[in-house]
Write a structure and sequence with these properties.
By secondary structure, the protein is mainly alpha-helical. It is 83% helix and 0% strand. The protein starts with a helix and ends with a helix. Mean pLDDT is 81; it is low at 1-5 and 74-78.
Length: 210
């Protein structure tokens, strides 16, 4: 078999696996820090990354399956699996956004002080940097190989960059505000940032379904 024909499929699988690995690390990091400091916005970002992880796994399976040749049950190949994966990913995003809004509203009605907003801001910075690098590679390989699944996964991560930056800004406000004006109540910023994350997630999911 000609190795050159397998090269695009190997590239697609490799970059999809990179996305799975990156998202796995970010989910654990965000969840650990979010629970430790009591931040609903960081936990919402962990859930966002969990959805991205599921999307990355689906994309990985999709590109692996779409690379298989046609057989008796799939006479035109397996390419449609990639299109189906994009729809499933959008539905997962909608569900995650609903949960985030529910938790944020609960925290707005019963506010709790954060333990250390600075740690949350640092995690968001790491997340943004990682997702910029991974999404860039996904876009590159996705466009070169005409992979719908990889490009959908890239858009998920690119959206995560913006939401992480927004949460980072909110946590920075709480952190700096606590240092400069210790008596000021800024705990409401955390759940409001979480709602902002949810709305951006819904927007991204909508774009995948139209």
């Amino acid at each position: 078999m000609d190795g050159r024909k397998d090269s695009p499929d190997r590239r697609k699988s490799s970059v999809a696996l990179l996305s799975v690995t990156s998202n796995s690390v970010l989910v654990l990091l965000k969840l650990t820090v979010g629970v430790a400091i009591g931040s609903v916005s960081v936990i919402s970002e962990a859930i966002h990354s969990s959805v991205d992880l599921l999307a990355a796994v689906i994309a990985f399976l999709a590109v692996r399956t779409s690379g298989k040749p046609a057989d008796a049950e799939h006479q035109f190949g397996h390419g449609k699996f990639e299109n189906i994966s994009g729809t499933v990913e959008a539905l997962l995003i909608f569900l995650a956004a609903g949960w985030i809004i529910f938790e944020a509203v609960k925290k707005l009605t019963n506010p709790e002080p954060l333990e250390d907003a600075g740690w949350g801001a640092a995690v968001m910075l790491i997340s943004s940097a990682a997702n910029i690098l991974v999404s860039r590679e996904l876009f590159k390989v996705g466009k070169e190989t005409d992979s719908v699944a990889l490009q959908a996964d890239a858009w998920h991560l690119r959206t995560d960059v913006y939401t992480s930056a927004g949460v980072m800004a909110g946590l920075a406000i709480i952190w700096i505000g606590g240092l400069v004006l210790p008596g000021m109540d800024l705990d409401w910023v955390d759940p409001v940032a979480a709602v902002g994350v949810a709305l951006l997630i819904i927007k991204a999911a909508y774009k995948l379904t139209v």
